Amino acid sequence: MVGLAAEVLARRVSCSLFTPLNLLLASLFLYTAYSFLKPAPAAVIPKEEPAIVFKTFTPRTLLPFNGENDAPVYLAVRGRVFDVTRGRNFYGPGGPYANFAGRDASRGLACGSFDEDMLTKDLDGSLDTLADLDREQLEALQGWEDRFSDKYLVVGKLVPVSEAA
């Protein structure tokens, strides 16, 4: 009889321990304990971008920055050299503005033309003064310059060979 009573008592205790509410609370406790005790994920150190040094470019020294062979893509507007590498799809090889890469793009942007004859032919001569542009072309150029200033870093200035030191 004692054995039977002990068995009945053990069943009642086990039945009362394994109720749905107790199982839910036990699961919640175990999850919370695991969340606090699990190791933190390893910190990821961001990749450091190379420092950009402001340089003085001539038309000839700017030319290699045309995006070919994974080179950065630079272009000049009114003597300011912009790093447009982030826009490689537009300004790099195969892009719609690719002929401006590594060049002074001022006249082409002002005139809305991507033709080769908009680019300076004599890389060792003087820079294009843009003196013959009309008011509408100068406004268009200003719009482009503002867009580049807002979106890209200025990495240098463009000077004629005679002023390069």
From TrEMBL:
Alphabetized GO MF terms: heme binding; metal ion binding
Gene3D superfamilies xref list: Cytochrome b5-like heme/steroid binding domain (3.10.120.10)
Highest taxon listed in the record's lineage: Eukaryota
Alphabetical UniProt keywords: Endoplasmic reticulum, Heme, Iron, Membrane, Metal-binding, Transmembrane, Transmembrane helix
SMART domains tied to this protein: Cyt-b5
One Pfam family, short name: Cyt-b5
GO cellular component terms given for this protein: endoplasmic reticulum; membrane
All residue ranges annotated as the Cytochrome b5 heme-binding domain in the record: 57-159
Residues that span the membrane, as ranges: 17-37
Cellular compartment(s): Endoplasmic reticulum
Transmembrane found in the keyword field: yes
Family from the record: Belongs to the cytochrome b5 family. MAPR subfamily.
Protein name in the entry: Cytochrome b5-like heme/steroid binding domain-containing protein
